[in-house]
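QA checklist item 7 of 12: single-chain prediction sanity check.
[x] sequence parsed
[x] length recorded as 255
[x] structure emitted
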Amino acid sequence: MPFEKIQQEKLSNGVVKQIEGLILRGILKPGERLPAEREMSERLGVSRPSLREAISDLQERGLLTTRAGAGVFVADVLGSAFSDALVRLFASHDEAVFDYIHFRRDMEGLAAERAAKLGSDTDLKVIDTIFKKMEAAHQKRNPSDEARLDADFHLAIIDASHNVIMLHMMRSMYQLLREGVFYNRQVMFKQRTSREVLIDQHRAINKALQARDPEGARGAVEAHLTYVERALTDQQRADRNEVYAKKRFEHEASR
């Protein structure tokens, strides 16, 4: 973790500000465990009492939490951007699904453009590493791993855009996607054609980012999410046709 020695003001205040900054920038993530007290105090260059004072302050602010016998963790500062009632409403209406995809297309297109311009070499290396893991999961035909890495890939691009508001908002949105609120990624990955197209689309996104091509990166993300929208539309149509055919068969059989 990129902790730095504290040089100014009251030492505990300096610790508070540094940890706050790491949480704000998404470097310390919800649920992540902080190093042990001794190690952390050495890395920060402060006494253990100063560190304890800072940890206590951050706990009171709801940014850190202590688990008995396990250590100090970053609190679940994301939560959900929406109430439970609204989440249930999203899950039961197709309109919300497609509005979600349109929103992602706009936001992630912008994030990809920013990542190509502003992302550090380390940011782009992280994205490339995740894509290579996606390729490996694709070869193993593991829909669960593919879906998880797909989300990680898109979130890494948002991380690389270096916009903290977008980062925290989109992480909350992706949590709903992981929970299957909007649609089931694994269903899409079961179709051979979709699997091949999707990995090619992610390859195009990664290629544009690694080349630091802002327009190409944005275009590749937008093309990918347009395809996702079309695939979901086709899937819903097929599901409706299947239900209709089943009901018709049952009606004919009952005659």
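[x] summary fact logged: The first strand starts at residue 64 and ends at 67.
[ ] second reviewer sign-off
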